[in-house]
Amino acid sequence: MRTGVSLGLAVGSLAGLLGSTAAMAQETAAAAVDSGAELEQVVVTARRRQEALADVPVAVSVLSAAALETRGIKTEADLQLAMPGVVVRSSNNSNQLNYVIRGESVDAYSGSPPGVQPYINEVPFPVMSSTPFYDLQSVQAVKGPQGTLFGRNSTGGAVLFQTATPGNEFGGYASLQYGNFDRMISEAALDLPFISDKLLVRFAGTVTSGGAFVRNLYDNQKLGDKDERSGRITIDARPFDGLSNVTTVQIGETSGTNAPNTAYYTIPCGEPSGFNSCTYSPANQPFFNNLLNGTLIPGYPNGYVYAGGFQSLPEFQRSQGKYVINQNGDFTHEANSDMVINKTTLEVSPTISIKNIFGYSYSKNAISYDTDYSPYPFIQQYAPNAPRTGGDLPIETSTTKTYSDELQLQGTAFDERLEYLVGVFYLDSKETYFSPLWLGAANVAVAYNATTGNETYAGFAQGTYKLTDRMNFTLGGRYTSEKITMRQDARSLFGAGNPQEVTQEDPSWTVSLDYRINPDVLVYATTRGSWRRGGFNPFNPPTATPLTAANDPGGNYFEPEEVRDLEGGIKFDGGIADVPVRANLAVYKSWVKDIQKTAYVVIGGTASSATINVPKTEIWGVETDVDVHALDWLRLGGSVTYTNAEFTEADSRLFGSTVTYGPFGDVPEFSGSIYADATWRLPNDRGSLSYHVDVYNQSSFYFSNLGGTIQPGTKLPSYTLLNMRIDWAEMFGSRIKVSLFGKNLTEKLYYTGGSAGAQNFSVESATFGMPRTYGIAIRTEF
């Protein structure tokens, strides 16, 4: 009730101020012409050193701490609304995510490393679950193949998260946000400079709760809530001039429920893979009646079961409203993550520095969901009447422990005409999977249970040489060797043991040329080559031969993926008719060999996932964005991304059959956004009022790479989202800011991804995007 009163008072106060602000707008606009509006300089670390975005010959998107707050970015899913060309795709539920850039991603249950590698403070970390977004200094998306500079090879790009560093003065902030669905997000940070310029410490943390928005008809439960606790300490020690040692320790835990996928499309009875539509049908008597009355499985059902049968379930759910499912599963989500990062930098001389970056991360993610996305118990993670208490609940669990270390030598030479970076990198990672299944019709329980290992060694070097005062040439290379291992653990369907090991190695490289036409315009051309390691899929029987046309039927081994690209671009950062403008345009084409994709199959009567190397793929596209400071109080901008991806050699062998891949999945052909920011100074020391509005549009896309053949019904529709925010800062001369926000204000029902399960479950499932959300936020700085 108090929240409602506060919200009403804030709305009333802001509404009154809007009237006086509108009267001031004309006067403010006239003054702005003479005040000299400016765009702030954007600094990025896309080449492992700080430099202006306008000087970097590669496509980069960046969001500062201020932009993250203005755009209301609190989760990975929010990033794609503000970063052109970045897609955040979900698979089986809202807590299984991966990044997509330029068509490169990673399929669930593939055993493949990510096509887009995320980093925290320059250390690669695994994507196992959604992560806490708080006290960030910036987020950058570096697009295109990576390998010569970043710790791990990736074929699509890298997403760089930089946490805030300690300040040299006592201070900090605290914020509280509350909205519909009882969603609460609180954050705080505090700088403690124990010894000025010598020992600086920053504490930061977040606590979140609520957010359930999906209704389950089976038991009338609301799903999708998240309770999150995360804390971070950063210690910046500078014992003497030239030496900096920054240590970051973060600990977090998350609990709640998944926002589960909904049954989006069922394969009709009589069509290939439509067996469950035939089995779980009123026409299948007496089986169906015996299921519903509890004769077949004693005690089932315990909740509401739609008597219309499996085939008509999606249509029935949609008739019951938005964000509705009907599933008899459990939807537990629990995650723990610990992280330690140490960066030590020694300035050997004015032109040479040595940096060491050590990283440790531990993640455990436990997720349960209804594998068949229906109220019928034909495939579950556990039997419907099995005991479900504490740690005995048999749910899908994955645990990852990773150590990495990188030693760099950076410097300049030849009268500072050459900037260079030389280094070595090491990584040791182990991941354990446990994924149980209960096969209802046979009353049989099985599990996928395996441990994979990855040990990586790499050496790299890159240099940029000033050919003239306007032209630079960059050349970089890395050689990487990776040892991949796998063993089946005690509860494995395939039997314990069966050790597998392979070593893969290959170079990565980059060559670029950039030319500054004038102080405002940079043009560049670059070509890169990189690769993504292969390995073993823990959800397939362990065999030594890869699943290729030459080795069909093959098994769980898959080959490395290789990519080569060409990119050309132009960057403008200057003024047009005295109006500050920043604009970027990039055009690229990639050639991918043996791209890693999955197909769900049935092996020995058990659902499984096979990782397949599709022979050849071509991806090309255009990315552009513009930012205009039209007036001192008005800023406008937008972005458009076009991606054309296709399998040019699409036929692969799958257990004795030819499978034709296409259309290309996970990538909308078009995406784009426009935004406006307006800020007015209020009279009589009342503070300032800011208004932000943005519109995001995304075209339709497939969440399966087999949507044109064996996995129909996997095309998701296009959608448009409208988001707004109003900030009243420095209220009456204080350090308090009150904000009202709304996302998806038109209440558009949309989907962010899905899981293609036609071969195993006769159903394709899709993940709901967030509904309309709104609320109030209060922030104070001190």
UniProtKB/TrEMBL annotation:
Q: What are the subcellular locations of this protein?
A: Cell outer membrane
Query: Is Zinc tagged as a keyword?
Result: no
- Spell out the InterPro entries in the cross-references: Beta-barrel_TonB, Beta-barrel_TonB_sf, Plug_dom, Plug_dom_sf, TonB-dep_rcpt-like, TonB_rcpt_CS
Q: Is Cytoplasm included in the keywords of this UniProt record?
A: no
Q: Where is the TonB-dependent receptor plug domain?
A: 53-158
| TonB-dependent receptor-like beta-barrel domain boundaries | 291-745
Question: Motif TonB C-terminal box: residue span?
Answer: 765-782
Q: What keywords tag this UniProt record?
A: Cell outer membrane, Ion transport, Iron, Iron transport, Membrane, Receptor, Signal, TonB box, Transmembrane, Transmembrane beta strand, Transport
Membrane topology per the entry is:
Multi-pass membrane protein
Task: Extract the signal peptide range.
Answer: 1-25
Record's family?
Answer: Belongs to the TonB-dependent receptor family.
This protein's name: TonB-dependent receptor
